[in-house]
Amino acid sequence: MTKTLIRNASVLSMDPEVGEIEGGDVLIEDGRISAVGENLAAPDAETIDAAGMILLPGLINAHMHTWQTALRGLGGDWGGRSYFEIAHETLAPRYRPEDIYIATLVGAWAQMDAGTTTLFDWCHNNPTPEHTDAGIDALEESGIRALFGHGTPKPKPKAGEPHYSQIPHPVSEIKRLRTGRLASDDGRITLAMAILGADYSPLEVALHDMRLAREYGLLSSAHIWGDASRKVEGGYHTLAREGVLGPDHNLVHCNYVDDEELKVIIDSGASITATPSAEMQTNRGEAVCGRVSALGGRPSLGVDLETYVSGNMLHAMRHALQVQRIFDNRRLDENTYRAPALSFSARDALAWATINNAHAMGMAERVGSVTPGKQADLVLIRKDDLNTAPAGDPARAVVFYAERSNVDTVLIAGEKVKAGGELLVDSGKIERAKERLAESARWITGAA
């Protein structure tokens, strides 16, 4: 049995029963958390001295298109429909399986480097099984914990071809993966379905896809905006009447979905994930963290795409909280110039990016909090660096001040993937991967 004892940390457990412990210890045995407390005794364990550090559950990124890593910096000033016209219709068809592989590998490493231990990789540029397998290969090689969302491409149809919205999710691919390499729900990489849903497909396709996911015991996830272009009349009111809505479904965005429909979704047990850093670039609709919370749901948080913004969940938390405060403040009485109290705190934002995301991804029994019995997916953040000291409050230090450079140690299933501020991947391998990523970017964009 392998044992690791982390000592003297400021523990932010995200578990109400465990609480927050100043000078706390966490004991890890065979990849799982076995005890959390003070002055734990484990003389035969490897010891990590975490004095001067904040210990929290590994951050979880509940929505990201990791295949777009090679497009970093391309879309920061895009508006309107540029993302769909350039990224999906023009560039995505240029991708080879090796482009999916290197983007996913570098993207996953970057997630781990910034303290994210679990990623929902929403892969909707996989026109062949070889593209799909390349993405899964990269996730496995990276060492990250991931929910691989098998999606479908969104190209501009050629003459005589059906529009992608009319094409049901391929049963053969889900069967191949679910009875093959991603058959287990206990592995480091598990399977989900990234479907078109009520906004991007007609009712018969949406029902086919959600029923297929349920048949194979998979979470289904869909991009849902709720604007006038949605394909299913009645949206989630209709899907609820059809009996396909439940805890095994996840919606992303929802900026224009009204409160009545949000309530139907939340009451069904389905989860809602916001990506404010990306949404606020081109949308006037409010990110839904506050609205979901007010209706009794658990706000969930993702990055969406590095084509627009950083994939760093530390940034995503900070931005989501400040965006929520901006919208809250705009609702103040016209004679009230400063909010007398704030609706959401740093601890709320930290919950969005940890335990709430674990619930959204159907993984709350495994990850998301520092709880005995769960996987030892943990992060240590230095609180005595120049930009974090004196860290008067650990949660606020993480949400408002911490950067990638403050992430000292990252463990996934008790295994160190970052230590002493360095990702535990051979530096030569990282350099070669970055060169391959740059070469891939030149190929993808060069002929466009």
Commentary on this structure:
- This protein has 448 residues and is α/β, with parallel strands linked by helices.
- The protein folds into 2 domains: 105 residues, Urease, subunit C, domain 1; 302 residues, TIM Barrel (Alpha-Beta Barrel), CATH 3.20.20.
- It is built from 15 helices and 17 strands.
- The strands form 2 sheets. Strands 1, 2, 3, 4, 5, 14, 15, 16 and 17 form a 9-stranded mixed sheet that branches. The chain has an 8-stranded parallel sheet with strand order 6-7-8-9-10-11-12-13.
- Helix 7 packs parallel to helix 8, helix 11 packs across helix 12 and helix 12 crosses helix 14.
- The longest helix is centred in the C-terminal third of the chain and has 20 residues.
- It is globular, with a radius of gyration of 21 Å.
- The model has no long low-confidence stretch (mean pLDDT 97).
**What is the CATH H-level superfamily of the largest domain?**
Metal-dependent hydrolases
In the CATH scheme, the class of the largest domain would be: Alpha Beta
CATH architecture of the largest domain: Alpha-Beta Barrel
Beta-strand content: 15-25%
Mean pLDDT: 97
- Under CATH, the topology of the largest domain can be stated as TIM Barrel
Rounded radius of gyration (Å): 21 Å
Please mark out the parts with pLDDT under 50 across 5 or more consecutive residues, or reply none.
none
Q: Would you report the number of β strands?
A: 17
Largest sheet: 9 strands, mixed
Helicity range: 25-40%
Count of helix runs: 15
Q: Distance N terminus to C terminus?
A: 54 Å
| Total separate domains | 2
What would you call the shape?
Answer: globular
| Backbone structural class | alpha/beta
